[in-house]
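Heme-binding protein, pasting as requested.
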Amino acid sequence: MTPEATTPAASVVLHTIDAQAAHRAVGEAVQAAQAMGVRVNVAVVDASGVLAAFLRMPGAPLHSVEIAIDKAYTAVSFGLATSQWNEALQQHSVAVREGLVRRPRFVAFGGGLPVMENGQRIGGIGVSGGSEQEDEACARAGLAAIGLTA
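Structure tokens follow.
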């Protein structure tokens, strides 16, 4: 047996969304927003939470640029849709509830979804500019464009 065979690996395989899929997802989310008559910002982050694709519709709220990115970041961070945080936080102590919502980049309202493929979290998508329901619907349309669901 060689020494390499007994040494544990010092790395892991990380599955992450590719650039083409990220761009298709933001494009379809924007098309869904156009069909609804809302102007949004759409962000896709990779499995590490790094921005992979972004589109801003002309006239979308400026504050929503960072909110869309943070929704995607929150979704990939925990693998939970941002719309589910209100209910999820009720199951935790006051310290956890208050601590999490004060974290930078944490968003606890609708519009962010984890991007899952074959049980692996490969990214997150965040939409901001419409209502929570409109934002989430646009995010779901983005996932559907790459053959995935939330």
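Note for the archive: The chain has a mean pLDDT of 94.
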